[in-house]
Every structure is written in C-alpha cells, then in structure tokens.
Automatic annotation (TrEMBL):
SMART domains (UniProt xref): TGc (SM00460)
Entry keywords, A to Z: Membrane, Transmembrane, Transmembrane helix
Signal peptide limits: none
Compositionally biased intervals (Basic and acidic residues): 601-612
Region Disordered, annotated ranges: 1-46, 601-647, 811-834
Organism listed in the record: Oerskovia rustica
UniProt protein name: Transglutaminase domain-containing protein
Record has Transmembrane helix as a keyword: yes
Amino acid sequence: MTENDTRGRLAPPTGPGAEPGHTDGTGTRSNLTTARSSTRLRGTDGPRALRATGAVDALALVVMLGAAVVGLGPAWGSTAYLLPALGGLVLGLGVAWLGAWRRWGTVTVTAAAMVAYLVLGGPFALPGTTVAGVLPTLETFRGLLLGAITGWKEIVTSVPPLQSFPELAVVPFLLLFLTALVAGTLAWRVRAGQWALVPVVVAFVGVVLLGTLVPAFPLAQGLVLVVVGLLWGSWRATEARLGERQVLTAASVVATRRLRWHRARGGAAMLALGAVAAVVLVPVVTPDTERMVLREQIVPPLDLHEYVSPLASFRKYAKEMTDDELFTVDGLPAGARVRLATLDTYNGVVYDVSSGAGSGVFTRAGDQIATVAKGTPTDLTVTIGDYRGVWLPDVGALAGVRYTGERGEALSTTTYYNSETGTGVVTAGLRPGDTFRLDAIVAPTPSVEDLESSHILDAELPRPRNVPDSVGGKAAQFMAEETDPLVQLKNLEVGLEASGIFSSGLETQLPSRPGHSAERIDTLLAADEMIGDDEQFAVALALMAQSAGIPARVVMGFYPDPEAWEAGTPFVATGADVHAWVEVPFAGYGWVPIDAIPEEDNKIEPEPKSDQVPKPPVLEDPEPPEEPADAEAGTVDDEEKKDDAESSAFDWGRAALVAVAVTVPLLVLALPLLLVLLLKSRRRKRRRSADRPVDRISGGWREVLDAATDLGAPVPAGATRREGAGTLAEAFPVAAAPTVTLARSADATVFGTGDPSPQQVDAFWSEVDSVLVGMRSTRPRGQRFRAAVSLRSLRGARPAWVPSWVPALRRSARSSARTVTRPPTGSGPKPGES
C-alpha cells in the first residue's frame, strides 16, 4: 500500500451525502477522529504551571501553608504577622511559578528569589523602613539581611507578644517565602509532586517551634494538613502512576476522569470520617502535656556576670548619695515598692542575679509583655536623674515598657526582662535624662492576717554556697522548737529585729561595716549586738530561711518614707530611700516582701563626746575598704569620658557585623556558581595534562565542544570533528575559519603516525583558547556569564568515582526502551488491508 493509497483511505468523504462524523463504511472517518483526538490530548503537554492541574496545586499549597501561618497568632498577640507571612507565601509561589513557566535552572531561580526577597521584602516585612511603604532603602536591605541571620535567635529570646518588635516580621516572611518557593517548585516541576508536602510539614514544625506554649487552633490546623495533604498527595501520586502522556483516546480520557472522581469521592469520605473521629477522640485520648517550643528550651545569650550586683553598691547609695535625686516616679500607688533587682543566688561573696535556666532567663522586652499576674493595671512614668546603671527601676509585674527621648530606640532594643523575678536589664545603660513609661500590674500587699491564713509555697531557687556555719546555728536559736514554716519565718524576722541595731555607718550612727560576704554575715550573727543595715539583715534573713528549707530571695530597691511622702504625688527617690528586703512565696499572693529592719536605738546609743574626760584610744582592726564611689552596677571609671570617646570613634565591631551579614548570604548564593567554575577548571586541567599526548589533543577539541554547548549551540552527538566544525561555523561565524582549521589539525594529529610533541600540544591549546575567545565574543555579556556557570556541558560528564560501564549500561537501557513502541490506536492496517 502506497502513501497515496493511505492518504486516500484517510481522506474524509467529499461526495454527495457525505456528512461530518460519518464514515464511508470502512471505519476511516472514525480513525481520523481518533487520531485528531489523540493529537489534541498530547498537544497539551506544556508547563504544568500553566495548566488547570497547576492551579489545583497552587490552591492546595495556599490552603496548607495558610493553616500553618495561623499558628503564629499567640506568639504575635495580634494579626500584624499576617501581612509578612502571607506576603512571603504569595511571593514564594510567584517565584516558583515563574521558574516553572520559563523553565529556569537552579541558579536562575536562586538569583530571582534573592532579588525578590530584597526588593519586595521591605513592603511586606519592614514597611517602616521603606519610602512610601514601597521603595526599599539601605535600612531595608540591612534589616532583611540581618534578620535572615539573627532573627531566628531573637524571635525565640524575646518576650511575647512579638508585635512589640516590628523587625522580627522578617522571620515569618522568610519562613513562608522559602517553604512556598520549594513547595511550588516541587509541585510544578517534579513528576512525583507529592514531595511538596515535605516543605509544608517543615513550615508547620517551624511555626510550632517559633511559637508559644499556647497553641492557636491545633485541631483545625492538623485536620487541614491531614485532609488536604492526603487528598492532594494521593491525587498527585495517582497522576504520576497513570502518566498524563499515556492518555491517547477520548474514551480513555473519560475512563480516567471517572476513575479519578471515584477515588476522590472515596478518599474524601474516608478522610471526613477520620476528621469526625479526630474531633471526638483527640481531646479524650491526648495527654495534657505541654508542647515543645524553642523559647522554653533556649536560654538567651545574656551574660549577667558582666554586671556587678546592685547590692554591692548599697552602702554607696545609703551613705554617699543620701540627698542625690536618683530618679522620679509618677503614678506610684500607695504601698508599692520600686524594684531594682531580685537577687536569688549567693556564692559567699555577693548576692547576685542568677544566670541560666529558671529564674535566670532574661528575654527581650518591648512595649507589650505577656503576663498572667493579677492586680491593678497601673501606668507609671520614670525619669532618670543621678542614677546610672543597667538595672531597670520597675514596679510590680511589667506588661510593657516604652522609652521616649533621643535614646529611646537604643534603650528599647537592649531591654531584657525576667518575668519570674520581675527584674529588668538595659544593657545600653540608663543615664540622666532618660525617660520611660511602665505598664505595670500592681498587686496589693497582703496583711499579716492574710499571710497567717495562707501557707508558704515550694519554689526552686539556686542553692546558696559558702554559707557560714553561724547562719544555721542562729536560725535554730531563733526558731526554737517550731516546725511550722510560717511560724519559723516569723521567729527569724522577730529575732533579727529584736537583736539587731540599725546603722549605715553615718556620722550620727554606730560604726557599721559594709558588704554582705560570708565573713561579714558571720561577724554580724556572732556578735552580741548585731549592727548593720538593710543589706546585712536582708541577706542574713534569706540565708537563715533557706537553711530551714524556706525559699527566700533578696530584693534591692527603693520605697518612700510614708511619713514624708504623700500618695498621688511624684516619688523622688534619693539614696536615703534605698532598701533591701526578703521575698517569700505565699499561696494566693505570690512572692511577698518581708522586712527585718531593727530600730536605730534598739539597744544602745553612741556615748556623748566629752572634752573633760577623754576616753582612752581603742585600737581596732582596720576597716576593710568600702566600695569605691564609682563602683556602680554597670558603670566603669570615667564613664562620661569613655562615652565621649566611643561616640567619636568609629564602631569597627558594628561595621564588621554588617559586613559579615552582607557577605555571608552572598557567599552562600555564590557557592553553587563557584563550585561549577571549579569543576570546569578541574576538567580543563585534566584534559590539558592527560597522560597520552593524543588525549590532550582530543581534550582540547572537547573543550571547544563543551564551550559551544554552554553557549547554546551544541554539536550533535556522534558528529565527526569536521561535521562539528561546520556546525560551529554556522553558529559562530566570527570563529568559523579557526574552528575548521582546529578540527583538521586535531584529525591530523589523532589519526597520524606517532605522538605529537609537547610544543605541538601547547600550540594546539593556544589555538583552542583563540577559538574560545572568538566564540564567546559573539555572545552578549549576560549570556557569556550564564555559559560560564552553565551545567549543560557537565551533565554528560562522568565523575571520577563512577565506573566506565555505568554510562554504557544506561545508554543500552535507553536504546532498548526506545525500541519498544506502542502504535497509536487505529493507526495500524486493518484486516484485508495491504
């Protein structure tokens, strides 16, 4: 049967009575319809991102990743996180869609993602740093680059709600941007698209780890992930198994659609039953345990050992700064106390703030701080006077701190708070003129009757070290035979007040040594007349209480004299208002302040001086040197001079940090490009230094072919050198003559007698370099750069660790697969045809 006969047999009837859709009795019309239907179905094989199935993929990813985004709500405390998170989701899917549509390589997609992150990240994540909320600035680029590196640490070391820290919006934006980019790329460019569920699960886990112990909607989120994920994943798996390209007829299309519809209905019904069972059974069978989040596992890198305990400067305030106005508090409630620091660890030298897990966890604080404290919300304004230091004067339990003035931003970014102890630290240091507002929850102080009707709670505190033996002996003496902790604490308090004499070492008071080391406390308790001030008696009471098993900690702060201060007026704290007291936990009231301050004239008074009867001189042991006047917490000598010098000097540390933040991401992005250049350089070196001179000549020609492949003009496989030279001459007219000459020279050398000399090899490679320069000169600069980092010429290369028989086996398998073909339905000869 000839070609003309075939054409005539397949031609539609044109005679009288011929109608579309009918046949001439031989089935030829039916065959034509089937062939056209098959061609139309196979012709829809474009990029998946442009087809309806790609839209289904996008919808599934948006639903699942959107459910993951909801988990950030409790940590943020508002809906402010939705803009950066959803913006990152849409932007990531957009870059993935462009890459799938344009069939970009990995390097191009990575570069496009980096550009999109820097250019469009500002409007979504850092709108406050942009111009008109759109155009990025240098501050925008700096925030995006630093946030990509340090934001992950800061988000788990900051006190929720995180809406107080706008710069942390980079983290949800980047998390959703990366997961959406990877998920979209896998869904639209990989045959087994169900692998896109892996980055979706990563997004869910990341949101949980970056969140709080309080979940958002865990049951709803889990159901969305399971139901949508399983439905979409099973659909993609079925699609990959059946194969889109194997649908050849209209009848098979209908059958395939019916099969998919039945599977979808069956899967949806099963998942619906599973969802109902989950809603009913999960609350019953799930144990009531806390989930793991990073902010509860990671201790923030705040080293409190850099700062001197404020209690070491107690005598300096009481004796040398008696009339100095340290700070002013507006709005202080009656009976409230201003806390400077809570001290809960003793090492025999100083009572200090613990650093580490538990009560030593300090996290960044902002204008909103999550708290469960009960009391009266109170707004206070604090204005710093002569006070200098890193310890933040606060009242009650903080619900937020807002700074004003020129140093507001520097102070707000360096404020840390410990909600367990109510202690705040400002690492930038407070100075005269600084002003801030406190949102505090102030609980009323319980009365003695209230405490008697309550009981002391257990609390975990660091165990004191190097405690003198006199502490336990004196505590046993004061407590007598009592076993009730509440009565024991009361006896300790009364015993110290009755046996002590108050003195801060002023001229009108008895001599009193400063400090609270183990030697000083031992001397205090061993004396018949215990002389000291709040510093010594508070430490002694805390150590004695802990020796009896009663949890106690020391607090240093300020509170006004009720006889000299009127409630409702500003409290001007001076050195005379400094105090130290003990806190003990009570059921229903939390940590309650306990004072043990004896009267100044409790036992004896200083004898009056007499000029007529002089007293004989008494040789006493020299007093240890007091704390120097400038030994204040968080300050150093000549701080003002140091500040002036620092303000005028260039901050090399910050410059280095910015340089690292900019350089590291660029190096990470450039690493694949550098790796490609290294592989090509090694390939060229291996060809140039082959063992056989003939192989060096062949390697030079291969270098030309690989360069042409990278430039987009590959030579067909199996072509001879002269045929390849003809192809290259058409693609690169400028280098036509040198290329033909180079091919002839290679043939003459390879197929000639004898090996070429080293001089001939060097001359041949010089011609190779000349041809390469000519070929590259015909392409624009951008194409030359893409060719330099292209992987086309490397894909066919065999790595050194792969045996030579592996590529041959692959080629054999491919050729065998190509020989097994399936003729289209209706295209073969029918019975009776020749």
